[in-house]
Amino acid sequence: MIATAGLLAVPTKTILILGGTREALDLAAALNPDYRTITSLAGRTKSPKMPAGELRVGGFGGAKALADYLVSENIDIIVDATHPFAATISRNTAEAAALANIPRIMLQRPPWQASADDNWEVFPDLKAAAANLKPNSRCFLTIGRQELGAFKNRDDVWFLVRMIDAPTTPLPLARHEAITGLPQTSVSNEKNLIQTHKIDTLITKNSGGNLSAAKLEAARELGLRIMMIQRPQVPAGDVVETVEAAERWLLNR
Ligand code: NAP
Fold first, then answer.
1. Residues 115, 117, 123, 125: is their CA dihedral positive or negative?
2. Chain-wide mean pLDDT for the chain?
3. Residue 91 pLDDT grade (very low, low, confident, very high; cuts 50, 70, 90)
4. Domains of the chain (ranges plus CATH)?
5. How much is the pTM?
6. Which residue minimizes the CA distance to atom 15 of ligand 1?
């Protein structure tokens, strides 16, 4: 790909950004128009925010197919800016980058840290959290819709489930209410939601970031039991935590 800067033709790097996060959108905005960027989305949300630069949507078909895509699209660098819990695509990206011999970096926001006032119970995965829910509790689940099956046997528990889009198939939960939309950014709105539904337990993934942190503050203030799911391991390789650090890493390439 060639871009013109005044009279000089300068080659432009093509950067594939594996997206689905705020950071991926911010990075695409920061890199355009100096680089050619292609943001890739899995296609899980109905109306995703449009990134700057190019967009492609849908799975690649595994690591080998992703490696083929990297070659056919002349990708110079890959930034894996997927969600910290999107472990499969991160694994596939690492494998594909190695197969195609293309530099790769992960952009992953830092996890939330418990403060002195917090008394989180940390679980390795949703299955472990489901097994440790107290009988007959009323639980606020903010884990998206894909992995709700982990709770299918807890028909003693009532769940408030928050998802970005309305579900198109019945949820695999015996007793629940589903609400749709993004997390509230106001602590008082989150408190209101928790109190209205008489919630006593919050189960959340340690996603990090400010966008969905209000529920943690609300849960702490209301004395809820907080069950925190820890992040899956990331593949070996360079990891940065901010868009600015990713830009610096790219400039050094
Ligand atoms: P995953 O379990 O790691 O990925 C499952 C499959 O979805 C992958 O093997 C890949 O299919 C496809 N895929 C995932 N991300 C993709 C992307 N950016 N571009 C193209 N294909 C992608 O991921 P997930 O947990 O389903 O998450 C899907 C997307 O939602 C990610 O982009 C992630 O950033 C975002 N997200 C996830 C969470 C979460 O809690 N997991 C929360 C917020 C946003 P193929 O094998 O066919 O290539």
1. negative
2. 94
3. very high
4. 2-110+233-252 (3.40.50.720), 120-229 (3.40.50.720)
5. 0.92
6. 42
